[in-house]
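Worked example 3. Consider a protein that binds heme C.
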Amino acid sequence: MNHDSNQYIVKTLELEGSVKDGNALFKTNCVGCHGITARGLVGPDLHRITQSFNDKEIIKQVTGGLTPPMPSFEIDPQNMANLLKYLHSLD
Ligand code: HEC
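Given these inputs, the predicted complex is written out as structure tokens:
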């Protein structure tokens, strides 16, 4: 991992996320593939995802573009923290 993405992860993990804002971001960017309630569609069900992926792995999944057809997203650290908070709320 390069220095920049490491900095991005550190910064994201320092921030307090908002479930509400994360949910809004999810609705805009992720529901087309993961479903409006994140129960899965083209992409997998994301409930309990935070039990099989840690936060770093989720950040890499979302920003990395390593598993097509899922695209890579450019999300600032605060919004990434919101998204993580939302995904944790799906436990
Ligand atoms: C174009 C469709 C598409 C979009 C848009 C998309 N995803 Fe995905 N996502 C996928 C697919 C397909 C996989 C499975 C990839 C694999 O395992 O090869 C996946 C996997 C994941 C995983 C790992 C889950 C697992 O069990 O492998 C997470 C976490 C995830 N997506 C989160 C998100 C989030 C958050 C967004 C919005 C920012 C998003 N995705 C947008 C298609 C999409």
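Take a moment to read the result before moving on. Residues 29-30, 32-34, 42-44, 46, 49, 53, 58, 61-62, 67, 69-71, 73, 83 surround heme C (CB under 6 Å). The chain has a mean pLDDT of 95.
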